[in-house]
Design brief:
Layout lengths: L1 H11 L3 H11 L8 E7 L2 E10 L5 E5 L3 E4 L13 E3 L4 E5 L6 E6 L4 E6 L12 E3 L3 H9 L3 H6 L4 E3 L6 E6 L5 E7 L2 E6 L7 E2 L11 H6 L5 H20 L8 H10 L7 H9 L5 E9 L4 E6 L6 E4 L12 E4 L6 E2 L5 E2 L2 H12 L7 H9 L5 E2 L2
Parallel strand pairs: 9-10, 17-19
Antiparallel strand pairs: 1-2, 1-14, 2-15, 3-6, 3-18, 4-5, 4-21, 6-7, 7-8, 8-11, 11-12, 12-13, 15-16, 16-17, 18-20
Helix pairs in contact: 9-10
């Protein structure tokens, strides 16, 4: 029965061929300046991030243990490579394109993973390893591992077959260890420990963290439009580097928001008008600070600037219990644990429809596939 389920699901994933083209339209250019940094205060580790994008709707989702899942591969010739697994840990994630396709999150062991666009990354030819797509890679890590060390040990086990976006990732855990996972030509380079001198990631390869404008100008790897974005990414990296030289004085959460505030996305009026014509509003839409040892999330949005707090220990991660969600633009400040509501299909339908409303390249049956995606995975508790 299980084998039939996954065979049937892989055939259904042909809809993602349509989704691939649509997401390419959603994410038009690699100029969206996401920034992340990690720091410590009184034996607690924090991870702070800006999420910059043309739109900011989304929801926080509780993800359950012991869920049987399968990789989402949009290319028919590679669907046989789709990974299959059972989630080991529960988590809370930030989702914008569907449940099970997060942009970041933290699991019940205190491991947090966040994405950023990676300028200059090129897709490679898939090999024989099992695969997931670039957003599902985050959920796969949160489902499987409790530490950056475990992520590093297992980094080569699966590959990413990208749907649209060239990404890299930063992960930090409750022990204080962080890692950056840079992907290029189907290979991953991991920076941890002594190779990770600064726990900062913007939108360029970590090996180029100190790249100069002159080096950018003469580079033959980067396209001209990438060089413009690369200069901005390098500038933000250096600003965060300088910021982290000033130690936390009192409130570590406010410190995190102050740091990422200093590198919020900026855009010319002309360029902003181009996005507005498309019905998009590019901005630093989400700001998130994770407290890893305490397993707490603090966040605010472009539309709701009051800081909210969510505690992972408040939730039940048994797959026999309902999934809960919270609109990311929840208005009330402070503890938001009790504001989560039981998930309904209409919640996923809302964010999927909002994400693709302006791009009619995605047919209704493709949207429906994403809306129904969570129901294709089963509880094996």
């Amino acid at each position: 029965m299980k084998k039939y389920f996954f065979r049937k699901q892989k055939y259904e994933l042909s809809y993602l061929l349509l989704i691939s083209a649509s997401i390419s339209m959603v994410i038009p250019e690699p100029i969206l300046p996401c920034s992340t940094m990690s720091y410590s205060f009184k034996e607690n580790t924090y991870l702070a991030r800006n999420y910059d994008f043309p739109f900011g709707h989304g929801m926080l989702v509780t993800n359950k243990r012991n869920m049987r899942k399968a990789g989402l591969i949009s290319h028919t010739e590679h669907m046989h490579l789709a990974a299959e697994w059972k989630s080991k840990y529960g988590s809370i994630t930030f989702n914008q394109f569907s449940r099970e396709l997060p942009t970041g999150g933290i699991n019940e062991k205190g491991l947090a993973v966040e994405l950023m666009w990676l300028i200059g990354s090129r897709p490679g030819k898939p090999d024989s390893r099992k695969a997931v797509n670039e957003l599902q890679w985050i959920q796969y890590q949160l489902d499987h591992y409790k530490s950056v060390r475990e992520m590093k040990i297992n980094a080569e086990k699966i590959q990413i077959i990208s749907t649209a976006a060239p990404l890299h990732y930063i992960a930090c855990d409750a022990s204080g260890e962080c890692g950056i996972f840079d992907f290029h030509e189907n290979q991953v380079t991991v920076y941890t420990g002594k190779t990770l001198e600064e726990k900062i990631s913007t939108n360029h390869f970590y090996k180029d963290k100190n790249i100069s404008d002159k080096e950018i100008d003469i580079s033959t790897h980067y396209k001209n439009e990438e060089k413009i974005a690369l200069r901005d990414s390098s500038r933000r990296f250096q600003l965060l580097s300088q910021f982290l030289k000033n130690p936390v004085q009192e409130n570590p959460v406010e410190y995190g928001f102050s740091g990422i505030d200093a590198v919020k996305g900026k855009m010319s009026i002309f360029r902003r008008m181009i996005y507005l014509i498309k019905g998009q509003n590019p901005a630093t839409h989400w700001q998130i600070v994770y407290s890893l040892q305490k397993k707490e999330i603090f966040f605010r949005t472009h539309s709701s600037k009051k800081i909210k707090k969510v505690s992972l220990d408040h939730f039940d991660y048994s797959c026999r219990t309902p999934v809960h969600i919270l609109d990311i633009d929840h208005k009330a400040a402070g503890n938001a644990n009790d504001a989560f509501k039981t998930y309904e299909r209409s919640d996923n339908e809302r964010i999927v429809n909002l994400s693709f409303r302006k791009w009619d390249q995605l047919p209704k049956n493709g949207q429906k596939f994403l809306v129904d995606l969570p129901e294709k995975f089963s509880c094996e508790d």
